[in-house]
């Protein structure tokens, strides 16, 4: 028996086409042709000059650099949050099996990412500024030039003395 000959199925099909017809038409004729041209979900920002490339009196450049700094900090914070969540989930799964070596690589990767995040954004306070972050980077580079990498200890003053022969 053909389902289209049944009056109930013909009624349901006609009701479906009445409700779905305009929606399908709008989707196929308007949304899909324009979807490739308009990014709906992820806005892509162009990279702007960083704060060290801005002139001292260029307020627009400083504003754009600050905005980009906020976006970059948000992205880096979310990446760190995802890594932390994966590590905690791995620990939760391993709690019952007592297999501690399984999450060791993930823990090391998280520690490296957390250290890099703290090097860039740590100790900047609740309202970080791009100028303060740049100065922190500059001071860290000066420290590393004078004393070696941070965390390795300071050089002994005798290393700086030049012996005359």
From TrEMBL:
Signal sequence bounds: none
Keywords: Electron transport, Membrane, Mitochondrion, Mitochondrion inner membrane, Respiratory chain, Transport
GO cellular component, one term: mitochondrial inner membrane
Annotated protein name in UniProt: NADH dehydrogenase [ubiquinone] 1 beta subcomplex subunit 10
Main location: mitochondrion
Stored InterPro entries: NADH_UbQ_OxRdtase_su10, NDUFB10
Keyword match Repeat: no
Topology term for the membrane: Peripheral membrane protein
Family listed: Belongs to the complex I NDUFB10 subunit family.
Any Pfam family: NDUFB10
Location of the protein in the cell: Mitochondrion inner membrane
């Amino acid at each position: 028996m053909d389902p289209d000959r049944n009056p109930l199925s013909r009624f349901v099909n006609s009701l479906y086409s009445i409700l779905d017809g305009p929606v399908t038409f709008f989707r196929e004729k308007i949304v899909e042709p324009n979807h490739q041209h308009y990014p709906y979900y992820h806005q892509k920002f162009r990279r702007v000059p960083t704060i060290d490339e801005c002139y001292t009196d260029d307020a627009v450049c400083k504003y754009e650099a600050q905005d980009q700094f906020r976006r970059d900090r948000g992205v880096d914070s979310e990446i760190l949050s995802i890594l932390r969540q994966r590590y905690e989930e791995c620990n939760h799964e391993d709690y019952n099996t007592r297999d501690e070596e399984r999450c060791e690589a993930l823990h090391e990767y998280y520690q490296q990412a957390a250290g890099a995040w703290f090097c860039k954004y740590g100790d900047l306070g609740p309202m970080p500024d791009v100028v303060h972050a740049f100065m922190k980077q500059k001071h860290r580079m000066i420290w590393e030039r004078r004393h070696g990498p941070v965390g390795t200890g300071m050089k002994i003053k005798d290393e700086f003395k030049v012996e005359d022969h």
